[in-house]
UniProtKB/TrEMBL annotation:
<comment type="similarity">
    <text>Belongs to the bacterial sugar transferase family.</text>
</comment>
<keyword id="KW-0812">Transmembrane</keyword>
<feature type="domain" description="Bacterial sugar transferase">
    <location>
        <begin position="10"/>
        <end position="193"/>
    </location>
</feature>
<keyword id="KW-0808">Transferase</keyword>
<dbReference type="InterPro" id="IPR003362">
    <property type="entry name" value="Bact_transf"/>
</dbReference>
<keyword id="KW-0472">Membrane</keyword>
<protein>
    <submittedName>
        <fullName>Sugar transferase</fullName>
    </submittedName>
</protein>
<feature type="transmembrane region" description="Helical">
    <location>
        <begin position="12"/>
        <end position="35"/>
    </location>
</feature>
<keyword id="KW-1133">Transmembrane helix</keyword>
<dbReference type="GO" id="GO:0016740">
    <property type="term" value="F:transferase activity"/>
</dbReference>
<dbReference type="Pfam" id="PF02397">
    <property type="entry name" value="Bac_transf"/>
</dbReference>
């Protein structure tokens, strides 16, 4: 099981790596924010409340990939633009999460931060997942890197997500917390970087 001292080392590593990467990523982030602003005709950064460490809510940052369009009947339709689909496929929409890491809301490695109604409702032994900060990548993220496409093929995507994918993610993330090591984090970062 991950220890308090391991959590501190993990945080120091996250902060230092984020500081090193920020000068490299800041210009691409600014350019992509401008492109997304023009593409979606609204501010190119999207923020949303997610469940974090110890079930505390925080605002996650992403590049905006969905465009809102009004139909004749006045109904709003949100769909990914061509640029948005590319950003989501390549995970570039998650670049602004480097600021979440700097702030201490997220880690580079950990369970993906969920919307309310998932991690915050875990019971018993499953709640150990909440000991760690949510991550940009991790074992479950790597396994389900094509999650959107998997869900698109289901008759009832929400039911499939809650009964199959989510249950498996909990098992994977529990194993990560129980068998944590710094080298494991390095392995997931390297795998995420080169296994696109």
């Amino acid at each position: 099981m991950i220890t308090p001292s391991q959590l501190r080392v993990k945080r120091y590593f996250d902060f230092i790596l984020a500081l090193v990467l920020l000068p490299i990523l800041i210009l691409p982030i600014i350019i992509l924010v401008l492109f997304c602003t023009l593409d979606t005709r609204t501010w190119g950064v999207f923020s949303q409340l997610r469940v974090g460490q110890n079930a505390k809510l925080f605002k996650i940052y992403k590049l905006r990939t969905l465009k809102e369009e009004k139909h004749i009947l006045g109904k709003l339709d949100r769909s990914a633009t061509k640029l948005g689909k590319l950003l989501r496929k390549t995970k570039l929409d998650e670049l602004p999460q480097i600021f979440n890491v700097l702030k201490g809301d997220m880690s580079f490695v950990g369970p993906r931060p969920d919307l309310q109604g998932f991690a915050d409702e875990l019971k018993g032994d499953d709640r150990k997942i909440l000991i760690v900060k949510p991550g940009i990548t991790g074992p479950a993220t790597l396994k389900y890197k094509d999650e959107e496409r998997v869900l698109e093929r289901q008759k009832d995507p929400d039911h499939y997500n809650r009964t199959i994918i989510w249950v498996d993610k909990v098992k994977i993330n529990k194993k990560y917390v129980e068998n944590y090591s710094f080298y494991l984090d390095l392995k997931f970062i390297i795998k995420s970087t080169f296994n696109k």
